[in-house]
């Protein structure tokens, strides 16, 4: 998907963030409100994969946690399912480790606690 593409008539793609085996994630902007979102789009169009994508979207929409990105919207763009989520600006753990090396015990403990809380919310 190219920067400048409009999705669901209200989100404009700004830049790619990452890509996996079944989809890609982009940073996008809500046209009217101006806030940033993460747009996940399936790159494989298959009925079973699309069904699983919708199940994932519904499950994630039910999660409420400060440690899990919120689902904002869902739809299709050019026959591909798309999921819009809260955009969280930051760095990956890999980037952090390459900058600072080993994490301090306090930081590692806090990070692990937040991950555990997010996983608990998803599990619930």
Description of the structure:
The chain has three helices and six strands; from the N terminus they run ββββαββαα. By secondary structure, it is an alpha+beta fold. It is globular, with a radius of gyration of 16 Å. The termini are far apart.
Counting DSSP H or I runs of 4 or more residues, the number of helices is: 3
Query: What characteristic shape results from the CA principal axes?
Result: globular
- Please give the radius of gyration in angstroms: 16 Å
SS class: alpha+beta
- Determine the strand fraction and express it as a percent band: 25-35%
In total, the number of strands is 6
Specify the oligomeric state: single chain
Mean pLDDT: 92
Question: How would you describe this structure in keywords?
Answer:
3 helices; six-stranded antiparallel β-sheet; 34% helix; single chain; 124 residues
């Amino acid at each position: 998907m190219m920067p400048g593409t409009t999705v669901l008539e209200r989100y404009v793609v700004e830049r790619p963030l990452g890509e996996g085996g079944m989809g890609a994630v982009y940073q996008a902007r809500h046209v009217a409100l101006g806030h940033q979102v993460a747009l996940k789009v399936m790159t494989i169009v298959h009925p079973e994969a699309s069904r699983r994508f919708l199940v994932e979207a519904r499950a994630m929409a039910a999660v409420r946690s400060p440690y899990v990105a919120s689902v904002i919207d869902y739809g299709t763009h050019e026959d591909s399912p798309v999921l819009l989520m809260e955009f969280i600006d930051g760095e990956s753990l890999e980037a952090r480790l390459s900058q600072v090396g080993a994490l301090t015990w306090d930081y590692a403990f806090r990070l692990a606690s937040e991950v555990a809380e997010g996983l608990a919310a998803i599990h619930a």
